[in-house]
Amino acid sequence: MNRQRITVAAIALALAAFPAAALVANNAQAQDVPVTELFQKKCLTCHSPTAAPNLKGPDLKGVFGKSIAAQKGYAYSDGLKAKASMKWTAANLDAYLTKPKDFAPGTKMIPSVGDAAQRKAIIEHMKGLK
After folding, report:
1. CA 75 from centroid of its chain's CA atoms
2. Is residue 5's pLDDT more than 50?
3. What is the mean pLDDT of residues 37-53?
4. Within 13 A of 115's CA, how many CA atoms are on the CB side?
5. 59 near 51, Cβ under 8 Å?
6. pLDDT tens digits along 51-102
7. For residues 101 and 55, what is the distance between their CA atoms, to the nearest angstrom?
8. Residue-wise over 10-48: b if at least 16 C-beta within 10 A, else e?
9. What does pTM read for this prediction?
């Protein structure tokens, strides 16, 4: 009799845990959607996430960790060319997205991302563009 109770209790516990696990997975997916929408809204007007022909700005595929102003075929501003010995690190991207003209005087990039959480989300998304 005790064995039946334990089995029933184990089954009930497993069934109760299953919807909770699905809920956690759905929440994780829901959190990804705003990042994608944010990236589309803030970046994709001027940039491509793939190695496509340049739009107003250079494509962003694989830019994280690469040298600044290194993409062939794009006419970078003198301000960015002056930073060519540096890499696009999280700190450099954060500074650039915060105030592009302060980071690289003369840059063609006009929009900025004032919200630190949004910048962090965009940078994390850019790390995956390989």
Report:
1. 24
2. no
3. 84
4. 6
5. yes
6. 777 678 998 999 999 999 998 888 999 999 999 999 999 999 999 999 999 9
7. 20
8. eeeeeeeeeeeeeeeeeeeeeeeeeeeebbeebbeebbb
9. 0.71
d(CA 117, CA 98) in angstroms, rounded, equals 11
3-state secondary structure 43-97: CCCCCCCCCCCCCCCCCCCCCCCCECCCCCCCCCCHHHHCCCCCECCHHHHHHHH
Q: How far is C-alpha 105 from the chain's CA centre?
A: 24
CA distance 84 to 98: 19
Residue 93 near residue 126 (C-beta atoms within 8 A): yes
Choice between 91 and 5, residue whose per-residue pLDDT is larger? 91
Determine whether 70 is exposed, middle or buried from the number of CB atoms within 10 Å of its CB (0-12, 13-18, 19+). Answer: middle
Closest among 97, 43, 89 to 66, alpha carbons compared: 89
Domain boundaries, given as residue ranges, for the chain: 33-127
Supply the CATH classification number for the domain 33-127.
1.10.760.10
The residue length of the chain stands at 130
pLDDT for the residue numbered 8: 41
